[in-house]
Amino acid sequence: MPSYEQLRELLDPATTVLMTVECQQGVVGTESALPELAKEARESGAIGNVARLVSAAHQAGTQVLHAVAERRPDGRGANHNARLFRAAGRLPVQQLSGTRAVRIAPPIEVSEEDFIVRRLHGLSPIAGTDVDPLLRNLGCRTLLVTGVSANVAIPNSVFDAVNLGYTAVVPADAIAGVPADYTPAMIRNTLSLVATVTTTEDVLGVWKRRRPGV
Quick check: pTM over 0.85? Predict the structure, then answer.
C-alpha cells in the first residue's frame, strides 16, 4: 500500500478525477440484470464505499465522473461480437437509454458538477467515449477507478487509463466482481502491476486532511 505522502501527491483534487463505473440501477441496484454481481457489490461494502468516496470528492473539490453503460431499445450500434454482449441482450432487465436502469444507484449521490458519460458499445468506459478528452480538458493526471465489475469493466478502465498516460488508483474495497474471491485475485495478480492499490479509508484520510480548517 502507498504511504500517506505518496497518496497525498497522487490525489491532489486539482488533478484527480474519481470515476464510478457502471454504478447504475440496472447493474448494482435492487432490480439488477445481474443479481449475483449486485449482491456482491452491496454485501462486500463496495457500493457503500463508492458512495463515501463520491461524497468526500464533492467536499474536497475533486471532479466526479460517472461512466454508464446503456443501449438503445432497437440495439443499433451495440456490440454482438462476444458471448457477453449476446447474453446481455437476453437478460430480463435491459440497460435502455432513458430508463431507471441507467440512473446512478443509491446511496451514490450525483451533484450538478458531476459528469455522466454514457456509452452504447464496447467493454470500456474510456475507449471510444468522451472520457479521455474530458479528463485532459480538466487537467487530470490521476484517475481514481471505482465500481464494477472486477471481471471486465474495471480492468479495462485501468488498462486504458494507463495506456493513455494517466496514473490509475484503485481503492480495493470500492470495486467488486464475481465470484467474491475473484476480485482480490485480480487486484493482486493484475491491477497491482499497473495501478496504485489503496483503500477507501486511506483516500478519505487524504482528502479530509486537505480540507480547509482540518
Answer: yes
Q: Take residue 123 and report the three cell numbers written for it.
A: 467493454
Residue 202 scores a pLDDT above 70: yes
Average pLDDT, the chain: 95
Helices 46-60 and 35-43: angle between axes, nearest 10 degrees:
60
Long-range contacts of 88-91 (CB under 8 A, 24+ apart): 88/33, 91/33, 91/34
Residue 88 makes CB contacts below 8 A (sequence gap 6+) with 33, 95
CA dist 85 to 39, 77, 175, Å? Answer: 21, 12, 22
- What is the rounded distance in angstroms from the CA atom of residue 87 to the CA atom of residue 61? 39
Q: Return the H-helix or E-strand segment holding 169.
A: strand 167-171
Strand partners, 20: 66, 146
Q: What angle do CA 45, 50, 51 make, to 5 degrees?
A: 100
Which residues contact residue 64 at a Cβ distance below 8 angstroms, ignoring those fewer than 6 apart?
Answer: 17, 18, 19, 20, 54, 57, 58, 110, 111, 113, 114, 115
